[in-house]
Design goal:
The protein has 681 residues and is an alpha+beta fold. It contains 24 helices and 22 strands. The protein has five domains: 57 residues, Helix Hairpins (Orthogonal Bundle); 235 residues, D-amino Acid Aminotransferase, Chain A, domain 1 (2-Layer Sandwich); 76 residues, Nucleic acid-binding proteins (OB fold (Dihydrolipoamide Acetyltransferase, E2P), Beta Barrel), CATH 2.40.50; 146 residues, DNA polymerase, domain 1 (Orthogonal Bundle); 100 residues, BRCT domain (Rossmann fold), CATH 3.40.50. Helix content is 35%, strand content 19%.
Length: 681
Amino acid sequence: MDYKSEMAALRQTLNEAGYRYYVLDDPTMSDYDYDHMLRRLEELEAEHPEEITPDSPTQRVGGAALESFQQVEHPVPLESLQDVFSPEEVDDFAQRMGEALGDVQYSVEPKVDGLSVALEYRDGVFLRGATRGDGRVGEDVTENLRTVQSIPMVLPDKLPRLIVRGEVFMPKNVFHKLNRQREENGEALFANPRNAAAGSLRQLDPKICAKRLLDIRVFNLQLAEGRTFSTHGETIDYLKSQGFQTIPHKVLREAAEVNAEIVRLGDSREELPFDMDGAVVKVDNLSDRAVVGSTAKCPRWAIAYKYPPERKPSRVTDIVVQVGRTGVLTPKVVVEPVRLAGTTVTNATLHNQDFIDEKDIRIGDTVVLQKAGEIIPEVVEVLKDLRPEGTVPYHLPAVCPVCGAPVERDLDGAAVRCTGAECPAQLHRNLTHFASRDAMDIDGMGPAVMRQLIDAGLVKTAADLYFLTEQDLAGLERMGKKSAQNAVDAIAASRERGLERLLYALGIRQVGEKAGKVLAAHFRTFDALAQAGLEELTAIGDVGPTTAAYIREWVASPQSQHLIRRLKEAGVSMEAVQQPAGERFRGMTFVLTGTLSRFKRDEATALIEAQGGKASGSVSKKTTYVVAGENAGSKLRKANELSIPVLTEDQFAAMLAGEEPGDRPPEEKPPEDGQLRFDQF
């Protein structure tokens, strides 16, 4: 391959990997491989500068900001670091600094593998936080950063303006707990804490971010109006005094000491609460930094040492299958114990059948293991030259190893699931969902109570809830006589919730609240639904071929049929409560936005659906009307851009009464004098 073709191939591969890593938070390449490919591209561009293109990853500092957040321009750029991979390169760096500056002191610290952010304070009060983005423009994630408990909202010093840079991360213990929950729920695992932290910080709902328990370590002072400092160490001490958690560092003089500290940090990485993907070496004196300056993309006064991933072989002794709370079968490989990245590894996830087939992993094979992101053990490759005779390809079982029900592969993915409606592995999740507010709404029967009922052997299916007595419940922890009676009454009341709620409560795949209402309105009884074929189901609006197939499979399952029989014996209503839908809004899609004064949001949605319409959460070309209350924002703007009719609440009420909506109201008003719009920042 000639150098032009090689450069083009490298650019394409690196740009795709960068987009997956920075924008989608879905890395497809290890950092180590990415860094080496980038190094090769830099070498070629140095030899052939005329071939450098604007889209080359060497001309970028990072990834572009997501459009779902407001953009923020960084007053002080958040630069990236030059990577090195050997002690000799550290020596070369120290030699360059010594020649340029004379006597040099270096600050050496662990490199947190998280998401870099800038925190801005005005007069000592937290004003805004933004992601690094491309180093010059990032994403405004202020509300999510407010949920990070280690970020001080008010500082002791009231400097006019202070900007600090830190790394948001997910602590290792939180990461492990989150992945265990995701595995139980049949969700894809986060590859590493960095991936989990980035995905959490980019959640549009701050409540979700708050549940992820993110943390931060501050490592640089970007701007401090009214204060001066001589060294990096002084800035870190100052930030500590202001209540920030900072990254530990050591100040050293000799290159040999720096290399020794890099080794020590690598050996002790398991002791740190955060994942670490390298060590950072910086010139400590701030005036020295100004002397050597920066290139177009990185400072000359700092480097990042990258540790190679540790890989070791081990023999596969077994492949076991676990069934998660959603019924997903997750295979794991059991290996002979091997010490890897500071811990003893005895098993590794195999993800799904596709992963097993791709690598052709068999019992008896010798496999190479590494820890993805230094955390999760994974199989890198099979050493097929060491494969013993007689091994056979592995296939997931055809029936659930817990309940014996048939398993089926998702129609829209790689997951294989148990089809049993009464599978013990899914029981806790199924019961909790069945009793939830939007399903059968059984007050006082939350996850903790359900766990006690299961452990006591009192329930094995949702139908068993209706046969519980006050005495059964009174024997549970923190459940007195009065609480037990209230729970029994709540269970009894749920018998009359109707078919629409029952269909949602049963947990049929892709049958949510809206589909439950649509199906109940059409069929009116469960028996009528059970007799419907695929053609009749797919003829109903909001029921596609995949959903129809899941409904038929669920109805045909012996466990499902047993559950329905028991629910009927318990007196649970199998008929629709809601009246058949009207025709006034048939074929129309409404979007509600802003603060509604005449209607509650769920009431307006119910009124739309009662007249045969749909209520959507987003504006598109398929939207018929947007109903705008006070302080309507981006949805109103998009409606105006797409020329979609916008209704006031009065006009919406008139349509409900059978009248015409009237003229379209004026477009959104500009802000009043002195009032700053959010997107002006």
